Amino acid sequence: MADAPEGEGPFTPPYPVPHRSKASLFKRFLTGWNSWIHTLFERSYTMQMGEIRLPRLDFFIANDLSVVERVMDDREKVFPKHRFQHELLDPLIGNSVFSANGKDWEEQREMVNPAFAHTNLKRVFPAMQGAVDDLLATIATMDRSKPIAVDPLMTHVAADIIYRTIFSVKLDQASADRIYHAFHRYQKNIQPGAMLKLYGLPLFGYRRRAARAAAEIHAVFGPIVKARYDAWHSGGGEAGNDILQSLLEARHPASGEPFSYQAIMEQVSTIFLAGHETAASAMTWALYLLAECPHWQDALLAEIDRETKGEPIAFEHLRALGGVRNLFRETLRLYPPVSFLVREVTAPTTMRDKLLHKGAMIVISPWLIQRNRNNWKCPHAFAPERFDDPEEAEACRRAYMPFGKGPRICIGAGFAQQEGMLILASIVRAFRLRYPDIPRPEPVSRLTLRPKSAVQLWFEDRR
Ligand code: HEM
């Protein structure tokens, strides 16, 4: 769709240069402290199945696509989500649909499903549009004589969209800032806390600090949930038309009981966090990639003008914006916000030539699989057009999993793609983006994959 400038190959955006050989346990511990993708070595990307023995845990990384499919499709439920992931997320989301397993998960999923029917894409489009219009207005009034930090803007708009969809209210700036900073503190503390736990070491207060940050996030929307919960259960509440209303009305499939206040808070926290932190990460990276590739901005602008004929971007236009969709997909391939998925072995099993004992951890990493040269052509290059290339169709089908795979695939994938496309198309139409003359952003992987420090971009008016 967009040709690179003459004499230049496709752009290769930043990623941590892998170590030549496997580092010592001590070195891995130090580098993994803040970002696990920094512990990778060259062979990590192409090996079929890796094995790391930690003092307290056998740890396997599966890259072989047939093993990946076996683990992720898991119809027999022998590879549930690992308790380590539960540890990472527990203070934030408790035992919700994201972290529960087995029958408990099935029942929760049944109760939460109607809430996701509210994310019926056409119905939520106006809420998304309202939040995006506010975003454009905010950027237009910012001091643009210097580059603008993109991450907080994307966090705000993604959080605002999910807020409007869950609660039918707009997210104010003070609450957005509180969430952004608290979530940053949460990630900073929970990652080392989890590493220490993995190595069987004392926790040095990391977990306590993470729990405090989680409590701060809950305090932002706790009062809204409490008021609606009390009103609904005392018979005085008016039925809303949002996700919270579906959760209030949900009934347990066996007992017929409604969710308790605590359980609703856990589901709301899950939907809110799963639904905005990931999307914000994706949009931040997408804008960075665009800023480095002006020819892509030109190509997308031509596509948007052709399809919308200058009208506001509508739900009906999105289907025809193939270039914008490919940009979104390629961003998620290069920078999958959820860079690893963790499963637990519940019965001894053999995979390839390895015997996995009960309790072992299996990691499936979209980051590794989507950057494996045996799956993709020029895997580290930014090439959105690959999604239209018949030679890469097999990779797109089998080696592309930013939303996971199998029964536990992301429930919000369509929602995320719609908001991502709307935001990106709206920004490309309004502004020309440029990357300043500063070092490139460095990806770090904590709970989500984020730039180490906020991405700064020039936003120049198009008109
Ligand atoms: C770019 C944005 C997003 C990405 C990359 C993403 C990624 C993922 C991934 C990888 C999983 C599966 C985790 C695993 O198998 O261990 C997942 C699950 C989930 N996601 Fe998303 N997600 C995104 C947006 C959203 C949105 C917008 C929502 C809600 C509106 C959402 C809600 C959920 C929920 C509730 C689950 C748990 C599903 C279950 O286990 O039954 N996500 N997501």
UniProtKB/TrEMBL annotation:
Entry coiled-coil feature ranges: none
UniProt signal peptide: none
Sequence positions that bind heme: C410
Taxonomic source organism: Rhizorhabdus wittichii (strain DSM 6014 / CCUG 31198 / JCM 15750 / NBRC 105917 / EY 4224 / RW1) (Sphingomonas wittichii)
Family: Belongs to the cytochrome P450 family.
Swiss-Prot/TrEMBL cofactor(s): heme
Name of the protein in its database record: Cytochrome P450
InterPro entries, A to Z: Cyt_P450, Cyt_P450_CS, Cyt_P450_E_grp-I, Cyt_P450_sf, Cytochrome_P450_Monoox
Pfam families (alphabetical): p450
Keywords, alphabetical: Heme, Iron, Metal-binding, Monooxygenase, Oxidoreductase
GO molecular function terms listed in the Swiss-Prot or TrEMBL record: heme binding; iron ion binding; monooxygenase activity; oxidoreductase activity, acting on paired donors, with incorporation or reduction of molecular oxygen
Source species, domain of life: Bacteria
